[in-house]
Amino acid sequence: MAEVKVKVQPPDADPVEIENRIIELCHQFPHGITDQVIQNEMPHIEAQQRAVAINRLLSMGQLDLLRSNTGLLYRIKDSQNAGKMKGSDNQEKLVYQIIEDAGNKVGTEFHHVGQAGLKLLSSGDPPASASLSAGITGIWSRDIRYKSNLPLTEINKILKNLESKKLIKAVKSVAASKKKVYMLYNLQPDRSVTGGAWYSDQDFESEFVEVLNQQCFKFLQSKAETARESKQNPMIQRNSSFASSHEVWKYICELGISKVELSMEDIETILNTLIYDGKVEMTIIAAKEGTVGSVDGHMKLYRAVNPIIPPTGLVRAPCGLCPVFDDCHEGGEISPSNCIYMTEWLEF
Amino acid sequence: MTQAEIKLCSLLLQEHFGEIVEKIGVHLIRTGSQPLRVIAHDTGTSLDQVKKALCVLVQHNLVSYQVHKRGVVEYEAQCSRVLRMLRYPRYIYTTKTLYSDTGELIVEELLLNGKLTMSAVVKKVADRLTETMEDGKTMDYAEVSNTFVRLADTHFVQRCPSVPTTENSDPGPPPPAPTLVINEKDMYLVPKLSLIGKGKRRRSSDEDAAGEPKAKRPKYTTDNKEPIPDDGIYWQANLDRFHQHFRDQAIVSAVANRMDQTSSEIVRTMLRMSEITTSSSAPFTQPLSSNELEFVGKSGDSGGGMYVINLHKALASLATATLESVVQERFGSRCARIFRLVLQKKHIEQKQVEDFAMIPAKEAKDMLYKMLSENFMSLQEIPKTPDHAPSRTFYLYTVNILSAARMLLHRCYKSIANLIERRQFETKENKRLLEKSQRVEAIIASMQATGAEEAQLQEIEEMITAPERQQLETLKRNVNKLDASEIQVDETIFLLESYIECTMKRQ
């Protein structure tokens, strides 16, 4: 290194040399170097020469220009990545960078900045809150347009190109079925986009949910049956008919009916639907931290129950279920005397 | 009174009492309280008939009267009381289960006659029971009066308000209408009667010669010449007590379904102990299972723990369960899931409904709108901006149980009216056939009495052809089915009415 320094001592305006030096410096500090650092290392080189060198490196795709809180940073670009971008032009690189940015929101403090020559962009996304999303949501094509200020047709062309090169992928959002979000090819899309375990290819898996529903209910029902048959003290009977969410989860996992890995929360959402069906009731008891399946000192217990009244009287008469109830009156087209529903019901 | 209720009342009055009473009754229900002359004038019936009709209605506690200023007496009909007539079969059945046949007949007589003196009831019931018993046995009055006393003790029958005995001689003219008073304490006091006697078996008219009944009759009247000891003390069936009993039954069965047999027994004991008094005292075992029920709560620790049953909450959950079952039967189990979800969460957005209920978005939306259009649910708007722009407001779905219960109740009334009409229609259609079968039966009976031969009987029976017999069978079955269904719908009415009453009282 000292030799290099010595060599640079005389006014050496060799741009290649400068570039090499900068690259070496970047290697030294993989996190990125500020302008200040470069200046310190090569004090004799003018700002303009520096800028030219940096520009060249950037255009060659060997340096990344980032902006952090303290100023501009230069970072060596991953050679692998650099290889990928060969053959793409500036605009594509820009779009790719934007998409990568969206994917790298988690844990980065830096914003990608466009190349010199293109306007500086302010992405305006607070980095800290992005990391809370705990997942990668991808970026919408309209956002890409805003960020890069490129016209729509260009963007579409570029996106198609990138997709064909297998650098990015489009994921259909589950919330709005027409909307596509883009993200890097190898990243996992977030739950909010794909819908999590219950969706496959953005289609809600009703059958899957139904099957799980029935399985959980059968498990709880059989537990209640065995408890009832044991004919012990009612308190013990009641207690043994309870199952914790952890038990249900283990049972379902062992059944092996699901190809997707299900977490305990998933099972709890299924059990909640059973509660809304009126077939299951839930209690929360305080459990010691560390007992299996307890979350925050609580444990949820589930139990199969019967409905508290049998189907009510009104629905046993045809009038209770009649779709033309409001039109029915004596002497009209539809009246009790000629009601076909009643006739059918009476013949039953 | 809604149209549906008025229609139902008119059908009931017509069926039980006839056209004239129905006309007067419906007129009174529609127009509120009116004096005698106005009623006669408006309905166009003669004064005499109006008086008779009113007598019938008053006797059955369907119409009450009041003296207004200037000495005008006004009559007022109680629509709710008329609707209770639907429930008579249930009252009679309940008494049968509790007090067996004797009690059943007592209550039946009281309901059919409105008001009766105790001796009259006892005599009638004994006569009826004697008829159904084997030859030679007769029903003892004492047994009947025992049952009567027991009914009075458990408050199933109560005394009617009576004219107060004025000790000071009132020199003025007697008031146009007596004001009836009844002392709280006296309501269930049974007068000390010593009714000795046995039930008289009614002899069939064929055994007597034509002349004999006339001779017998003076004998009967001489028997009745003795003043009845309890003249003026009339008894009626205490409907509120029956309602209380039904309510307790509903709660106990709900507990049995939700928990197990033993906890339902505990709840039943608690309810029974509070039958006469309203508060409950400590049961002997600790009902630990009462944690999950909303009905039972702890209210103090004296005597090892005092427990109360929260009746309002019990009725609320029963009414909610009724609503849920109606939604389930009408719209499907997924709709029921959404309904329960909205009930539990009180206010919820459409997006959240999809997430919680695990139902695809499109179907969930469809179901929510359907329930909204049928008024089971309502929307609560929460605007984000001062101009209530639809794109910038939150729309939350919510269920208002009281209004849904009222809506369902109205539907029940209309359904029962429909069922009664259909029953009448069916009967009218086959009137010819019914009359024919009645004639044939009468002929057969008379021929049997005069000792006809088998062959002749056969011939006459064959007057009714096989398909006609079939038709009669179908008719009977249909009428029974419609009747049974009326009673079932009435059960729903009872639950909903009790809930609405309880909630209104609280407010």
From TrEMBL, chain A:
One of its GO terms (cellular component) is nucleoplasm. Gene3D superfamilies: Winged helix-like DNA-binding domain superfamily/Winged helix DNA-binding domain. It comes from the Eukaryota. Coiled coil: none annotated. Transmembrane segments: none annotated. One of its GO terms (biological process) is transcription by RNA polymerase III. Keywords: DNA-directed RNA polymerase, Nucleus, Transcription. It is found in: Nucleus. InterPro entries: RNA_pol_Rpc34, RNA_pol_Rpc34-like, WH-like_DNA-bd_sf, WH_DNA-bd_sf. Component of the RNA polymerase III complex consisting of 17 subunits: a ten-subunit horseshoe-shaped catalytic core composed of POLR3A/RPC1, POLR3B/RPC2, POLR1C/RPAC1, POLR1D/RPAC2, POLR3K/RPC10, POLR2E/RPABC1, POLR2F/RPABC2, POLR2H/RPABC3, POLR2K/RPABC4 and POLR2L/RPABC5; a mobile stalk composed of two subunits POLR3H/RPC8 and CRCP/RPC9, protruding from the core and functioning primarily in transcription initiation; and additional subunits homologous to general transcription factors of the RNA polymerase II machinery, POLR3C/RPC3-POLR3F/RPC6-POLR3G/RPC7 heterotrimer required for transcription initiation and POLR3D/RPC4-POLR3E/RPC5 heterodimer involved in both transcription initiation and termination. Belongs to the eukaryotic RPC34/RPC39 RNA polymerase subunit family. DNA-dependent RNA polymerase catalyzes the transcription of DNA into RNA using the four ribonucleoside triphosphates as substrates. Specific peripheric component of RNA polymerase III which synthesizes small RNAs, such as 5S rRNA and tRNAs. PANTHER family: RNA POLYMERASE III DNA DIRECTED , 39KD SUBUNIT-RELATED. This is DNA-directed RNA polymerase III subunit RPC6. It comes from Homo sapiens (Human). The lineage of its organism: Eukaryota, Metazoa, Chordata, Craniata, Vertebrata. The gene is POLR3F.
